[in-house]
Task: structure prediction
Amino acid sequence: ISIKLKSYAKINIGLKIFNKRFDGRHNLETIFQEISLFDEIKISPSDNFTLKVNTSDIPKNEDNICYKAFYEMKKKFPQISPVSIDLLKKIPVGSGLGGGSSNCASTMVGLIKLFKLDVNLNLLKDIASNLGSDISFFFHGGSQLGKGFGGDLKKISIPNIDYILLVFPDINISTSWAFKNLKNSLYDESSKSKFSDIHRLKFKWKSMQKFFENDFESLVFRTYPKIGNLKKTLLQYGATYASLSGSGSTVFGIFDDFETVSYAEKQMTQMKTHLVKPINYKKIFEY
Result:
């Protein structure tokens, strides 16, 4: 018996980076939105643990997040026996779309299903927090407000999203590089963001641009002007909101209708693009 899962990507709608924590991670605030672009993961019982990936861009050894997820889960649940994991990557590496974190969450969920483990969500989030910052988001997905280092999560209602156009500039940005070079003054935790007010704001996306900024944009756009131009281009072609996702390099635009988003996509033939829809909040093991 094999377990097959879709490991969905996310975008960040706004991203505010606060001070560094005692453990070296930064506090942040963001709105995560799960989207319909996904990797595929197949987990099967095996004599030995093996990991196959369809790209040379990511490691296949103990540096791989799925590898780490397996061994962290095995520590907590000794009844887990070896598996083979087949990972079909479609979410670009270093794109700010959370592919690695999503793969990690999906691997954990796949092991729970395969071995019929009795797990509560708090334990799962505990394991996830040792592996990375936004992994816990992917257990429920949908639209969530993320605080702390991404693990303090709350389901949130946001204005309706019809279409999201992702644009990939073919630049790989390392998250650790982005955090290390974030020179602009980091906000103190006590400073207010407007993220949690979004459900009270009855605005459409057009008025959101001034409310939700991504703190990585100034660094990334300065270092890679090509990426900054993509945001301007999406807005020119009718996006009601556009932003860098995470620390980049993907830029996305939110569009109200298919005609406008199709036109925008046709104008961007020099770039790799992907048209996606939002994914709704799901029950814990609905994969």
Observations:
- The beta strands are 3-20, 26-45, 50-53, 83-88, 143-147, 152-155, 163-168, 241-244, 251-255, 272-276.
- Residues 175 and 247 are 6 Å apart (CA to CA).
- The mean pLDDT is 86.
- Helices lie at 65-76, 99-114, 121-131, 137-140, 175-180, 217-223, 225-236, 258-267.
